[in-house]
Amino acid sequence: MLPNEWLKPDWPAPANVRGFMTTRSGGVSQAPYASFNLAAHVGDDALSVAENRSILRRHLPAEPLWLTQVHGDRVAEAGVDAEGTEADASVARAPGQVCVVMTADCLPVLFCDAAGTVVAAAHAGWRGLAGGVLERTVEAMRVPPATIMAWLGVAIGPDNFEVGPEVREAFIAHDPLAGTAFRPALPGTLDEAPHKWLADIYALAHIRLARLGVTQVYGGGLCTLRDAQRFYSYRREQKTGRMASLIWLAE
User: Fold this and answer.
1) 102 in Cβ contact with 84 (< 8 Å)
2) Measured between alpha carbons, how far is 150 from 110 in angstroms, rounded to an integer?
3) Which domain range does residue 27 map to?
4) Is residue 50 domain-resident?
5) What are the residues facing 246 on neighbouring strands?
């Protein structure tokens, strides 16, 4: 049984699909990583990270495919690629292969198909999202997009994700509809362009997925920065831990 504080996707996935997202509770790491930090690259004590991963492993059928995330669009394949592969998503087709991504403001997205034959996990910060990580992940699943469902895990919310104009421009250059996911961070005059924007990363993901034909999208709505009790947030703390979002096919 999963700890109560961890999040389970609320979606109509097939019975053989398993997945969840951890929170910052339930581990042994000390401040500022308290307490369930799963990242080995953020400065936390290595023994604490190892213990936290050991706790996590008790809820999994196998060791996850831990990636070296680089805010890109590469998709690794479980059972083929090795731990530490530079990628920001992974896909699995065989039972017991666990996909995982780590986040602390970026958007984690879990995927499965309606037949329960393939699952995937993607790390979608704004750079990866703008660069096509969701598109590459859906392509790598090799099933009709209409059969895919996606669950959006916890990310920084639209009231707190402040970005520069170059971020907005990158999304609009790909799809003008993305402009609806931005609003000025501060009211400006009619003849002055905003210097900062508030971005809705959940809306941006919805737009990208809809363009692909993925319309069964669930989750979203929470904010890592606002809820310090439950979630890590790099924007809030800089020196902090990482949460994990995991998915696999059961035997």
Assistant:
1) no
2) 6
3) 17-156+214-249
4) yes
5) 20, 100
Q: Flag whether 222 is in a domain.
A: yes
Q: What is the CATH number of the domain that holds 238?
A: 3.60.140.10
Residues recorded for the chain: 251
Residue spans of alpha helices (H) in 58-185: 126-131, 133-141, 165-174
For residue 81, which of 130, 22, 140 has the smallest C-alpha distance?
Answer: 140
Collapsing DSSP to helix, strand or coil, 83 comes out as coil
Rounded Cα distance, 203 and 229, in Å? 25
Tokens of 162: 């402040």
What 8-state DSSP symbol labels residue 180? G
How many domains are contained in the chain?
1
Q: What is the mean pLDDT of each run of 10 residues along the chain (251 residues)?
A: 91 98 97 97 98 97 98 97 97 98 98 98 98 98 98 97 95 97 75 79 98 97 96 96 98 86
Helices in 58-164 by DSSP H: which ranges?
126-131, 133-141
Tokens found for residue 147: 């059969």
Q: Write the DSSP assignment of 91-132 as a string of letters.
A: EE-STT--EEEEESSSEEEEEEETTSS-EEEEEE-HHHHHHT
- 190 within some domain: no
User: Which of 170, 188, 191, 172 lies closest to 180 in space, CA to CA?
Assistant: 172
Instruction: Indicate whether 45 belongs to any domain.
Output: yes
pLDDT of residue 4: 85
Tokens 């961890």, located at residue: 6
- Note whether 125 and 107 are within 8 A (CB): yes
Residues 6+ apart with CB under 8 A from 47: none
pLDDT of the residue at 251: 86
